[in-house]
Design brief:
9 helices; mainly alpha; globular; about 0% strand; two-stranded antiparallel sheet; about 250 residues
Length: about 250
Amino acid sequence: MSGIDDGLVNVGPALGVAVAALAIIAIIVNHYGGAGLGAATARAALRAVIQLAALAAVLAVVITHLWSSLLFVAVMASVASWTSAGRITGCRATLTATLRSLLPVAAATIAIVALMVAIGVLPATGLAIIPTAGILFGGAMNTASLAGKRAHDELRTRHGEVEAALSLGFATRDARMEVVQTAAATALIPGLDQTRSVGLVTIPGAFVGMVLGGASTTAAAVMQLFVLITLLVVSGIAAAITVEMVARGDM
């Protein structure tokens, strides 16, 4: 059996062997390359296999009904918030930290997707809502994690500056903000670079998926632009809220 050719890759045994070989190479490189993340890479690859297999099975069921699609979006928001909370705090996320992370990670995405459905930009179907929300949750999660982790690192290494600001009469939040506010800018760099290089360095998945699905290249480009600009919005909000919460001691 040669596999299924979908126009992009030949999905068959050869692809499975290639993925396994590349995973092994990544594990070896990350183990011996100085990062010491070989085990973490292996776990991440294994989780990806299991989660994508589960995703394929679940989506086939939930995507047919709007209520089940919205429930799946809620699950995605919870997992993204839990993941980000763990990265920000540097330990296993608690329920309180996860709930707090919902604000920077999920609130903006839910509001924007709901608005886009209300005005007719996105159809009220799981096929449109789930992937759009997933992309935005992912962007906000990554930005919040980077901003929060960097903010805590800055507080640890520059605690003397915080103490100096406090001695000058600064409020605790303001003294901490003087140190952590640059973390937001650093966290936004990947999204800015992705937007600036689109079409020149990268051809994003939303564009490729729409073209392969039969849409015109113009329609695909417009949709991809919507995704990229919206990512900038949710990422900016995620970074700002995360840094504010760290400065206030809420994360």
